[in-house]
Amino acid sequence: MHNIWNFYKRRVWKILKVYIVFCIPFLIVRDLIVGHNFSKFVKQLCFFDDHVSSFWYLSAIIICYLIYPFIEKFLRDEKKNTIIAVLVLYISSLFLLYL
Fold first, then answer.
1. Separation between Cα atoms, residue 69 and residue 10, nearest integer Å
2. Cβ contact 42:28 at 8 Å
């Protein structure tokens, strides 16, 4: 459990650095200064916009980081069959497409 928290702390800091340095200033200029659309700014800031964000890859990275420790634990268990692991990964990737 301690290793998982360390994993998440390191990853969250990496994502936040990119988000603070690049995303927030871009969204402020695009949505608040140029577009004058505060609701769009808030939606994009929280990844809740219906349209594809300019920073779509950050939400994809967050999802991958969230599921990675569980997939790794599952794959390390030698009692499990590799085919089951591949099926679980496939089904989870299909599920993530429709989020």
1. 13
2. no
Residue with tokens 């004058």: 36
CB 61 within 8 A of CB 16: no
Distance CA 44, CA 50 (A): 9
Q: How far apart are CA 74 and CA 68, in angstroms?
A: 10
Mean pLDDT of each 10-residue bin along the chain, 99 residues long: 79 85 85 82 73 72 83 69 74 73
pTM for the whole structure: 0.58
